[in-house]
Amino acid sequence: MCKRTNPRSGRTGRPRSTEADTAILEATRAALVELGWSKLTMGDVAGRAGVAKTTLYRRWANKNELVVDAVAVLFDELELPDLGSLQADIEHVVLQFAALLERPETKTALMAVVAESTRDEPLRERIRASIVDRQKRLVLAGRERAQQRGELPDEHPVSTVAALDDLIFDVVAGAVVHRALVSAEPVDEPWAARLSALLLGGLGAAAAY
User: Fold this and answer.
1) Alpha-carbon distance 146 to 130, whole Å?
2) I want to staple 206 with a disulfide (CB 3.0 to 4.6 A). Which of 1, 45, 127, 197 is the partner?
3) What's the rounded Cα separation, in Å, for the pair 187 and 97?
4) Each residue's pLDDT tens digit, 17-57
5) Interatomic CA distance for residues 209 and 196, integer angstroms
6) pLDDT by residue (tens digit) across 44-92?
7) Of 182, 183, 75, 87, which Cα lies nearest the Cα of 129?
């Protein structure tokens, strides 16, 4: 898994404390669940984490950066297993992703930063870099493994492969987030099977589930 250890690179001075970072990010998620985005302050997070407010500002310029990193470490928990087929691998990741979205701290934090990013372009860029681009590793790993198994061809141009990776990520992530957080419908094994069949075989394959 990717682990984020330095949200604000280029800083000098004393080494970062992993324990302090963990406490701060946990406090951020707890504060979001309890207070919501509008009432969350850097001072409140510092108090919950047991650190000085200046400690937060040495690591994060504002609460936007802080909340994105608090969400990003949760998504870093996602893993791609090797279950013997691309379809099984996809279904597992879909269910794992849905379980992550069911956690109050993930749901609250993700919805908050996405809503705020609609009027904050730097925040949107940080979400893309810290969450979206980092989690595309799952698509890359799944495609490479499927090619090694002979499930997918590997002769496509690099530009085409990159575009397909982006599309696969958008379809899977968009479908799961919409169903779990917008429609508030269950993401269960049958639904995950239909989604993976649709992704791999089109509408005809999905109708068989």
Assistant:
1) 26
2) 197
3) 9
4) 688 899 999 999 999 999 988 899 999 999 999 999 999 99
5) 10
6) 999 999 999 999 999 999 998 999 999 999 999 999 888 989 999 999 9
7) 75
